[in-house]
Structure formats: C-alpha cells, structure tokens
Amino acid sequence: MSLGVDPSELLRAAARYEDSARVVAKALDPLPETVRGGAATGTLAGILGRAAADVAGLVQTLGITAGMLNSCAEAYRDSDAGTAARIVTAWPDRGE
C-alpha cells in the first residue's frame, strides 16, 4: 500500500487555518475593555473574560494546527527528495 501526499495541499490547508486564526482573533475586537453593569459588573466581566480566553485558545489551536501542517508538508517534501535520490542511485540511467 502506498500513500501519496501533495505538500502543496498541506500548505494550502495551513494557510486556511492561519486565515481562520486571524478572523477568529478579530472577534475579540468588539469586546469592551471595561464593563459598567452596576451590580452585574463582576458577572459580566467574568463572562467576557471567559469568552476572551476561549477565543484566544481557539486562535492558538488554529495556529498550532497551521504550524503542524506546514511541518508535515516540509517533511513530506524532504522525504520525497530523499526517495528520489535513492531511486536514482538504485536504478542508474541506462542510456534511455
């Protein structure tokens, strides 16, 4: 069994994850820096803080995934180059 991997597809997927991370990070922009909610201020600040932390975690996960896909693409590319070199060595040109 063989598995063909196109590194350019992995790079495209990584770019999509990076773009998604940027879009999700912008979701934090409209969150207020301060909350004035009277008696509910503490609760609202806690909710907003939790939302900000959750979004930040998602951005980090998307970024890590993009990095992993980039690393995989590089590893497959390096592996392909090594395999090609071994094939050339094993089956030298026979004048064809």
From TrEMBL:
This is Excreted virulence factor EspC, type VII ESX diderm.
